[in-house]
Amino acid sequence: MSKIHATAIVDPRAQLDSSVEVGPYSVIGPNVSIGAGTVVGPHVVIEGHTTIGSDNKFFQFSSIGAAPQDKKWNGEPTRLTIGDRNTIREFCTFNTGTVQDKGVTSLGNDNWISAYVHLAHDCQVGSNTIFSNNAQIAGHVEIGDWVIMSGFANVHQFCKIGAHAFVGMSTSLTQDVPPFVLLNGNPAQAHGVNIEGLKRRGFTREQINGIRTAYKLIYRSGLTLEEAKAALAAEEQATPAAADQIRAMREFLGMATRGIVR
Questions:
Q1: Do residue 134 and residue 208 come from a single domain?
Q2: Are residues 28 and 95 in the same domain?
Q3: Which phi-psi region, left, alpha or beta, contains residue 75 (left: φ > 0; alpha: ψ -120 to 50)?
Q4: What is the pLDDT of residues 24-63, one digit of tens each?
Q5: Is residue 101 annotated as a catalytic residue, yes or no?
Q6: pLDDT in tens, 193-223
Q7: Is residue 140 within 8 Å of 123, Cβ to Cβ?
Q8: Which runs of consecutive H residues, i.e. helices, occur in the chain?
Q9: Tens digit of pLDDT for each residue in 80-131?
């Protein structure tokens, strides 16, 4: 039995591994490439210059690779790339990039993307993230590995969210979020370190303590960001067991472009 349902429309120029499954009434365009073991459910549209890796699962009614929601887009062949082993639930909308930025929207590996998530043009999302229902990500946003976006959280364009951060339900983000930080509210406020998430991922007590110290230097010490960066550099040298984690927080402060939630 064919793995492509008789009612699906797959352009003959699309490149699908022979093991790909395509459900009823789905539509796959000519510039789409899909890797082994990926399952495309019913009523899914995959279009644009879209490259999808292996062992992904697309649930019904998603729109993947459509043109960016940007009035500057003028038909350029920008791209969407999706890695391996991602779960993408119902009614998700992922757009391609724009030439004003990297020209590509990207999603890494092993991500769990729940229903009604919007991933706008030029977003860069890492691996092992969780996006709960209705998380809405505007254009040009960068999201690190292991980030959790709770339901109805929304992110302003050009924001950055560091690895292992936790964004609470209905949070509205208009500034950058350093790694490991837990935040919530509208407007967003930092509420400490994502300790439970770090424990689940095998961080040691020494690493977590180092991250907590770094958090206090940024948020509780009264230092300016420049003073905090200097203090973090000193703490990095003094705490070798957590040096990598403290360095990640310090370097993020240097890359933040919209100011940090503070």
A1: no
A2: yes
A3: left
A4: 999 999 999 999 999 999 999 999 999 999 999 999 999 9
A5: no
A6: 999 999 999 999 999 999 999 999 999 999 9
A7: yes
A8: 195-200, 205-219, 225-238, 243-255
A9: 999 999 999 999 999 999 999 999 999 999 999 999 999 999 999 999 999 9
Catalytic, out of 70, 84, 122, 176: 122
Amino acid found at 34 = I
Q: What does pTM read for this prediction?
A: 0.96
User: What CATH number has the domain bearing residue 111?
Assistant: 2.160.10.10
Whether 151 is in a domain gets the answer: no
Are 14 and 132 in the same domain?
yes
Q: Is 12 left (phi over 0), alpha (psi -120 to 50) or beta?
A: alpha
Instruction: Note down the domain range covering 229.
Output: 198-255
| 160: in domain | no
Annotation marks residue 70 as catalytic:
no
- For residue 122, indicate whether it is catalytic: yes
Active-site residue among 43, 49, 121, 164? 121
Let me know: does 259 contact 253? Beta carbons within 8 Å: no
- What single-letter DSSP state applies at residue 134? T
Which one of the listed residues 23, 48, 139, 168 is annotated catalytic?
A: 139
Is 1 a member of any domain? no
